[in-house]
Design brief:
Distance between the termini: 41 Å
Order of helices and strands: HEEHEEHEEEEEEHEHEHEEH
Strand order of the largest sheet: 3-4-5-6-7-8-9
Number of strands: 14
Largest sheet: 7 strands, mixed
Oligomer: single chain
Number of helices: 7
Shape: globular
Length: 259
């Protein structure tokens, strides 16, 4: 069933408005606070999330919102918006122009709409479950590279990397020895969208939250890619770890990670 068109329209409006707010403050010396040793939050994260919560409260007062920075009433509604107001906060705080807003709508626990907006490149990634995914209106299709050796991979570092550096580096090293190249951009949502666009071939990361991945995972799946846990099992957005690929290199990446 195709979702209510108002849902995708709202998702697009929300992430584009978020991008406008991000760019208005980017490079202006915004206030930055710490949630952890290396986990940052800026005043922009909070401002954007407040904007979105007000939008949902006005348009869909019976919907729930799960977002990164602010707590809200969770009533167990059938409809839940999963929102990251600024994915790539560390980049943003350091003046690195790789960040985005990411938004998905779940109905009965299944993602039906996704939107990710990269305001620096003015790239809007969207998806509807069972319909397809697009970049600025052009249909997305994952790459056709069939081996890890042919592939450019992308990953991210968890916020507890200082405590788990050896564990992370072990997996990183195994993939580094087999892949054409590995990149680290600093935004999981952009990473996965770039796999959907065929710019990257595979992404893996641990210790993520649903707002980091929910929208982009739908965008990739609708572009023909594959999303599982890093062990190759069923992906749980609340489980923290994810492997997202063009599909063709998926089993090989699972084997390399597990080895």
């Amino acid at each position: 069933m195709i979702p209510n068109p108002a849902f995708l329209a709202t998702a697009i409006e929300a992430v584009v408005r978020a991008g406008d707010l991000q760019m208005a403050k980017f490079g202006t010396g915004v206030r930055v606070e710490k949630k952890g040793a290396i986990d940052l939050v800026t005043e922009v994260d909070v401002e954007v999330e407040r904007m979105f919560r007000a939008m949902v409260a006005e348009r869909f007062p019976d919907h729930d919102v799960l977002a990164e920075e602010l707590t809200g009433d969770v009533r167990g509604a059938r409809h839940r918006w999963v929102f990251d107001p600024l994915d790539g906060t560390t980049n943003f705080a350091h003046g690195v122009p790789i960040f985005c807003a990411s938004l998905a709508l779940e109905i009965d626990g299944q993602a039906v709409v996704g939107a990710v907006y990269d305001p620096n490149r003015r790239e809007l990634f969207t998806a509807e479950a069972g319909v397809g995914s697009w970049l600025n209106g052009q249909r997305l299709k994952a790459s056709v590279n069939a081996t890890v050796l042919e592939s450019m991979l992308v990953t991210g570092f968890p916020y507890d990397v200082h405590q788990k550096a050896d564990e992370f580096l072990e997996v990183f090293g195994r993939l580094l020895k087999q892949a054409r190249a590995i990149r680290r951009l600093g935004s999981a949502a952009i990473d996965i969208c770039w796999v959907a666009a065929g710019r990257m071939d595979g992404f893996w990361e641990a210790s993520l939250k649903p707002w980091d991945t929910r929208a982009a995972a739908l965008i990739l799946e609708e572009a023909g890619g594959t999303v599982t846990g890093m062990d190759g099992g069923l992906w749980n957005p609340d489980g923290g770890h994810i492997l997202a690929t063009n599909g063709l290199i998926h089993d090989e990446m699972v084997r390399i990670i597990a080895s």
